[in-house]
Every structure is written in C-alpha cells, then in structure tokens.
Amino acid sequence: MFQFSNNLCAVVTGGSRGIGKEIASRLAVENIKVYALASSKESLKNIENIPNLYPIQCDISSRDSINDFLQTIDKENQSIDILVNNAGIHRDNILLRMTEKDWMDVMDINLHAPFHLMKHVLKGMIKKNFGRIINISSISGTDGNKGQSNYAASKGGLIALTKSLAKEVGKRNILVNCIAPGVIETDMISHFSETIKKSYFERIPLNKFGKPSDIANMVHFLCSEEASYITGQTFYIDGGMSLN
Hints:
The chain has helices spanning 18-29, 63-75, 100-128, 140-143, 149-169, 194-201, 212-222, and strands at residues 9-13, 33-38, 53-57, 82-85, 131-136, 174-181, 234-237.
C-alpha cells in the first residue's frame, strides 16, 4: 500500500505486546529490520519467530540498559532509520497521594527514555540525511486526566519534545511526529472497572474503543515515503474522544 526505502532498520520500544507488538509486526512485513524492545524476557516470547523482527530485552527505565542495547547496535554498525517510542507506564493517584517514586518511574519510561534514544539515533539519521521518529503520546497529554498528573505530564512533554525536535532536524530530512491514542483495547486498560470503561465509552462519538491496529496503521503511514512532507504533528486516534 505504501512505499518504503530499502534496507531500513527500526527500533520499537514496548514492542512485545499490545500496540508495540502490532507496530513492530507491521513494519517487519515491509522487510524492515525491527528491534522490538521489552523489559520482560518472558513477554518477548510473544514475538519470537516473526520474520525481520528481533526481540531484545532492554529495561528502558535504566540508562545503563539503554546504553548496553545501543552499544550492541553500534558494534553491528547498524544505524537506526526509524524509532518508535511506544513504551509507557502509569502509576495513577491523586497528586496529594502521589509519591516521588511514582512520579519518577513514569517520567523515566514515558519521557526520559525517548529523550536518550532520540539523542543517540539522531547521529546516524543526520549522517544519512534520513530518519523517522514517532512518539506515542496520549490524549491525556493535552486534555489531562484526574489521578494521572504524572502520566499526563509525561505525555504532554512528549508532544512538546516532538514539536521542538521536528523544528531542529527538519532540514536533515528527519521527520518527527506524535500519535495520541484514546482508549485502546490493551493490557493497560484491563484494570479499569466496568464503571470507568462505561464513562470513557460514553465520551467516544464512534461508540467503540480502539484497537492496536488503529495505531499501527498510522505508524505504518508515517514511516512511508507517502508521509515525507509531514513533521511536528500530533495525530489523535481516539474515535473522536478529544472532541468533547
């Protein structure tokens, strides 16, 4: 459906399940070499034996773990053409009860890890005069959400980081975009009570929750040649939820 350059290499964080697995698998179908990162060795079994997909255990909350992965890539003389910062966690609580650890755990994975990964891969992208960076944010990043000040702040920061970096590297043919999903049917919403699910559902004009494939579809497009004039944008894939 879309055109892609030859011999591309991608990194997808949180790539072993849910949205990340769908994104990694979709890019692998295009003969893109995909490193799918996950902190759990057990979860990597979900993506074994998929052609062009390489499961890698990496705890992106740890700077040392990120550096170990990046050093492995460098030793293979492998430059990264596509980076999808998909991994994210939440530690929900009202601000008065939120611990500093809850705040920092969310920031480390949702915002600090993307910063470190982007800073590293940009060197190779600038050298090749080509790159695609896609950050997976959330509608909480612009709308906020009670009990999620840490999560909303991290995702809002990711949107701002996307816009700023897009302005810095656009002349190098490096496109930086953001996707803000709404409520997607993944493990992340499995803890929601039926009451909470109902309250979200009622705010969605399309009257349905999204699927991981809905996000992967946009990532697929943004990595393609057909999206070569799009940068610095945030795409809301939320069934119209952000319209309310």
